[in-house]
Amino acid sequence: MEVNLTRVDQDFHFAAKGASGVEVHIDGSPEIGGHNAGARPMEMLLMGLGGCSAIDIIQILKKQRQQIDTFDIKVTAERVPGEVPSLFKDIHVHFILGGPLDEEKVQKAINLSMDKYCSVAAILYKTSTISHAFELTAGKLGMPGDLV
Fold first, then answer.
1. GO molecular function, one example (predicted)?
2. Domain that holds residue 16
3. CB neighbours of residue 38 within 10 Å
């Protein structure tokens, strides 16, 4: 696997591309001279965790013929204060799925992802405690980011 980063400005803004060719922007916070032109690197780790587990869960539930109408994930984390590097110490992943889903199948799919299949979780478990929970809603497909 290879990714390439190209500096966009004279500060901290980079454009990154992987094998998919999709461009992702990374930037530092305004407090250090960034311009909010991209996600912070530590945010991207949490996004990777959510995305990795989502792909696993969708694959597992599709194989079980479960219909997912909506799927949102909220990842929250605390970092170790006052340390350099300041690693994540506690991470919580909250899955919100909508549709005619079997609760037991959803729970099993989430557990399989978080405990066995998600490579990002496996990496983060080495330095963090990761907890997870889920809720089922009756939601139908809406706009991205809409929580039902």
1. peroxidase activity
2. 1-39
3. 21
